[in-house]
Amino acid sequence: MALNKKPVHGMRDILPEEMEIREYVQSVIRDTYRQFGFTTIETPCMESIANLTSKQGGDNEKLIFKVLKRGEKLNVAQAATEEDVVDFGMRYDLTVPLVRYYACNAANLPSPFKALQMGSVWRADRPQKGRYRQFMQCDIDIFGEPSNLAEIELILATTTTLGKLGFKGFEIRINDRQILKAMAAYSGFAQDAYDSVFITLDKMDKIGLDGVEAELLEKGFDKNCVDKYLTLYQELARQEDGVAYLADTLKDVLEPEVSEGLQEIISSVNATKTADFKLVFDATLVRGMSYYTGTIYEISMPQFGAACGGGGRYDRMVGKFTGQDVPACGFSIGFERIILLLMENGFKVPGQPKKMAYLVEKGVGGQTLCEIIAKAQAARREGSQVLVARMNKNKKFQKEQLTAEGYEEFVEFYRETLKN
């Protein structure tokens, strides 16, 4: 019986053309983030299952690839629950592993600590365009900075990177979880109902105001609360400065420093940005992760019908490991979706070296082959990319394939003569 040559469902092989673009994008991300003072770290691909199921990852906790215990520890016959047979899980994002990393190594790290992490994550999700079960994430995070300087730096670093990759006219949507909670409190919803309200609100861009109203009423919420809540959003649509409007309207339930901090982030980024984008306040922005405590933001690109990255502040997550809270804030680029957009637009990696192919006829060897390889070595030292390969019988097809891979010049070596 033949082995299965296809990759596991939801995972994929990456061909050389895409790999070249991926490596280039990673280099731009890494170099730009380092200019902003971020330092590279790495965490394991597996984490303790208790860490991954600690109710911090939202719906992603339902998508964990769980790892069975091994050897004598695995006793399926006597297992009563899943916990009896599972001890690890594949990481579903980079944030939970990063926080564990910080909690373990904080004594040896500077403060504030600016971390850059790139790596694969795994989710047992339903595969679709731009979404896979194994995919790359690129995160930057700042620990120990309580002020909104962290958010400003994160947004500027991320947007500068996207600008260097040629993206223009995109939006960074920004909100604050404290504003979301204040709007719900102002409208009369019970505190334990907030998450349910926000889950429905998060569908606003898909089902509209009427759809949100219908779903909230279907969930059994009081009509007066729902009407008051949705009136806030109707009024917001008429305001030139939505943050100022909510600061005034919600003054009895919202601390003034929340709206003031949000306004300072918006004004500071707009005054210092180098990329072509808009920073837009969006009171419907929720973000799914339950660990967010303050500012949240998301990358919206007109070419893609979904978010291409996002993040926010999670000041209480370190405390779950150490018992002492530490200010923390992060931003993640949607790497796979960025790559998909670049590929669809025919992106070519700039500044590539000249690509030459030395095609050597079968039978050429000994001293002659050494001389050919020496020529290739000399061209490589001068900066060219040189492939030395045996000439196929179907030379025309071989050249067509190499041309498709970007090779511009061919040198043919025969037993008796040299052809250019």
Describe this entry's structure for a reader.
By secondary structure, the protein is of the alpha/beta class. It is 39% helix and 20% strand. The chain is built from 14 helices and 15 strands. It has helices spanning 16-35, 49-52, 95-105, 149-164, 177-187, 194-201, 204-218, 223-236, 242-249, 256-272, 319-322, 335-344, 366-381, 395-404, and strands at residues 39-40, 46-48, 66-68, 86-90, 113-122, 134-143, 170-176, 277-281, 295-300, 307-313, 328-333, 355-360, 385-390, 409-413, 418-419. The strands form three sheets. Strands 1-5-6-11-10-9-7-8 form an eight-stranded mixed β-sheet, with helices on both faces. A four-stranded mixed β-sheet has the order 13-12-14-15, covered by helices on one side. The chain has a three-stranded antiparallel β-sheet with strand order 2-4-3. Helix 7 (204-218) packs antiparallel against helix 8 (223-236). The longest helix has 20 residues, at 16-35.
Oligomer: single chain
How many extended strands? 15
How large is the share of residues in beta strands?
15-25%
Rg (C-alpha, Å): 27 Å
What strand order characterises the main sheet?
1-5-6-11-10-9-7-8
Which segments are poorly predicted (pLDDT under 50) over 5 or more consecutive residues? none
Distance between the termini: 47 Å
Q: Major β-sheet, in short?
A: 8 strands, mixed
Q: Output the number of helix runs.
A: 14
H-E string: HEEHEEHEEHEHHHHHHEEEHEHEHEHEE
Any idea what the shape is?
Answer: globular
Structure classification? alpha/beta
Helix content: 25-40%
Provide mean pLDDT, rounded: 92
